[in-house]
Design a protein that fits this description.
By secondary structure, the chain is α/β, with parallel strands linked by helices. The protein contains 20 helices and 12 strands. The strands form 3 sheets. A 5-stranded mixed sheet has the order 3-2-4-11-5, sandwiched between helices. It is globular.
């Protein structure tokens, strides 16, 4: 089946003002040719991808360009999404590069806070002459452009590919088959549950709502059932207002039904997880995969790096498998379910307008987009970027990381699941029922959908007004 990647996030054209830059670089320092080192100030969100890749990329860049080496001055910032806007407003303490996990990109572009990157995307990524703009997958390319002038202003940092992590050592020992369908997943959970009472081994590790990535299957399950065309019309709303009834799709109902079947037992305790799982933070919950008391966990590409401090020679091998297919997932012409991965494409890189070293920052981004740069990133982050490169050459990545990358690159379609521009910022992030609510209220998929309907009906008119400001 031919892979397609879709656009489901664009910037609101009605809100992008004519003040956007013309694509030129105003100032921003020169590119040295005499071997002098340029220090690039980098503000970044230090999450699951860690920061080791910066050192490796610096070394790779300097080996390739000894006449213009760089040094990263790294500033991790857990609140970067909100702090960076104040820096750009005042033009004070501006970094040369920003690696953030999310932000009000459409607003920042409309206010002329961000440097255009079209010249970076014209640079070749390998010896064949393939340009970065032709190497990046289409959905991500369109997500990073302005819908007004069609220019690139941001670049994807990493693909947040959601999967099920699992204890491969135990799976091999007990000859458990990796589930490909939701029904197989439920059957496997029932099989593992036989060990829960006596050996205190549970099928799933889940945790409290402060780390809601274990809800990740919801987005893929929704897309599996709705299909890419519907998802595209919903998330790729542009300046149009999302239709109220589209919030109540069959795909979302199916996803809620699946989540409730997987986690709601009926007596206000988790169905396939430890009795008090919802009182745990995400690190202790993850560690149940390592201590053998949980066999699977819905998670993403960042998991292995978060394990590093507690891994030892006795730790089991943790691998990953793609989100299983729901029974009513759409099928292709070959009769097989269509494999869809879902990514909100919110983790972006950009250069603030007025930064001191814009030209050198762009030179580095061109290197990062290259095959060499992407492989180095994958080696040290355990994650992939949505460019057409051979991820299998990232031989230093963990087996878990390689499994998550394979799940992305082998997919038939990719859903970029975030509402566009100001509709998102107005508060219309897709409402959903959290596991704590589902478990504490013994809620099923119907009750979860009733919750969504109440949120949308109460707020929809205000969202529309804010879109039209």
């Amino acid at each position: 089946m031919k892979k397609k990647l879709s656009l489901m996030l664009v910037f609101s054209a009605s809100m992008l003002l004519s003040s956007c830059g013309d694509g030129g670089t105003s100032g921003g320092g020169d590119v040295p040719t005499n071997g002098s080192t340029t220090t690039l100030k980098v503000s970044f969100f230090n999450g699951g991808h860690q920061s080791k890749f910066f050192e490796a990329l610096e070394k790779g860049f300097n080996a390739k360009y000894p006449e213009s080496p760089i040094h990263f001055d790294l500033t991790p910032d857990p609140n970067l999404d909100t702090n960076i806007e104040s820096y750009m407003q005042t033009k004070a303490n501006l970094p040369d590069l920003v690696f953030t996990r999310g932000g009000s990109y459409s607003r920042w572009i409309s206010r002329d806070y961000i440097e255009p990157l079209d010249d970076v995307m014209e640079e070749p990524v390998n010896d064949t002459g393939l340009k970065a703009k032709d190497s990046i997958y289409e959905g991500y390319a369109e997500a990073c452009k302005s819908s007004v002038d069609g220019k690139f202003y941001t670049l994807p940092w990493a693909v947040n590919n959601y999967v099920f992590a699992y204890n491969k050592t135990a799976f091999d020992q007990f000859h458990w088959k990796v589930p490909e369908t939701f029904d197989e997943l439920i059957t496997l959970c029932d099989e593992i549950s036989k060990y829960s009472d006596s050996d205190h081994v549970y099928p799933l590790a889940i945790c409290q709502d402060t780390a809601d990535y274990y809800l990740a299957p919801q987005w893929e399950w929704e897309a599996q059932v709705n299909g890419l065309e519907f998802e595209n019309s919903f998330y790729h709303s542009g300046t149009e207002v999302v239709k109220k009834n589209d919030f109540f799709s069959t795909g979302r109902q199916s996803a809620f039904d699946a989540i409730s079947r997987l986690i709601v037992k009926g007596d206000q305790t988790p169905k396939y997880a430890r009795p008090h799982a919802m009182s745990e933070e995400f690190h202790p919950s993850q560690n149940h995969l390592l201590d053998g008391t949980a066999m699977m966990m819905p998670c993403g590409s960042w998991l292995h790096n978060e394990f590093l401090s507690v891994l030892n020679d006795d730790s089991p091998e943790i691998s990953a498998f793609p989100i299983p297919f729901l029974p009513n997932a759409k099928k292709g012409s070959d009769g097989k379910p269509i494999r869809i991965v879902a990514d909100n494409a919110q983790e972006r890189i950009f250069i603030p307008k007025g930064a001191s070293n814009i030209k050198m920052a762009k030179k580095f981004l061109a290197y990062l987009n290259s095959d060499e740069g992407n492989i180095i990133f994958s080696n040290y982050s355990d994650a992939c970027r949505p460019f057409k490169y051979d991820y299998t050459k990232a031989t230093l990545a963990s087996s878990y990381g390689m499994a998550t990358m394979k799940a992305f690159f082998d997919a038939d379609e990719v859903a970029v699941t975030a509402l566009s521009g100001y509709f998102w910022e107005a508060g219309a992030a897709v409402p959903y029922y959290r596991p704590t609510q589902m478990i504490s209220e013994n809620a099923d998929g119907n009750k979860a959908m009733d919750y969504v309907k109440s949120v949308v009906n109460d707020n929809y008119d205000n969202w529309v007004k804010q879109m039209q400001i």
